[in-house]
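This is your field. Please look over both lines of this record.
***
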Amino acid sequence: MRKKYLFGTFKNKLDVFSAFDVLVQNRSNTARESGHQIGVAPSAICLAAFAGLDHGYHLAAQNVGWSDSYSLTGEINADDLVHYGIGFCIIAHSERRLHLNEDERIIEKRLAECFKKGIRPILCIGETLEQYEAEQTSEVLTRQLATLSRAAEALGRPATADDLLVAYEPMWAISTSGSGKTLNAEIANDIHAAIRGLIDQAFGRALGDEVSLLYGGSVNKDNGAEYFAMPHIDGGLVGSGMQSAEGFAAVSKDFQAHC
């Protein structure tokens, strides 16, 4: 049975005190005893502060740099994440693809660094509205998953479902896109089902049915139950919908009840 994961990403919206307040008010929602894994991705400054606290949540970085012969000013050092026990890292969030022009070459380097250091990447994949309307979703996702497969060679062994997570987030459906559009839960489920086949194709073997696939497209307290009830959706990567104590509690409750 695939594991279920829910990550609330605070992006650059919550300072240390606001982020900590959300966690404190939701101390009882960690849910690990039920097999539901809940985590948070606070800002880089918050990570070190939260790492030593007994809050009960998985911690995820929002980005990571890579090891090379040159310095990378401003990037997060993967060894620092390992030192602080950060087990997950979001890679290629749509905002970074769209606004910072991160391409597959850079994304592959970030993914490979995670695999080398034993950090589990949460790879975000998804298409633009123009690509969706042109029925190019499968083509785009195929290209993005090929990057994941190449990067996984850094493991030095065949990748397993325990090495990675994949989050499908159509770029046009996230709350910060400004489109005002969302993706119907049934259609999202169909795309997740197709992604499983694309993972098999990318890795050249059966793996897709074992990988936990998360959805990240404007999930909130009003629609979370619809998405989490879908059989091919194994959780969520949620931004603004979990950036308040109330929203965090409501989405977590729906996740535990329906996923």
Observations:
- Residues 4-258 form a domain with the TIM Barrel fold (CATH 3.20.20.70).
- The chain is about 40% helix and 15% strand.
- The CA atoms of residues 125 and 144 lie 6 Å apart.
- The longest strand covers residues 4-9.
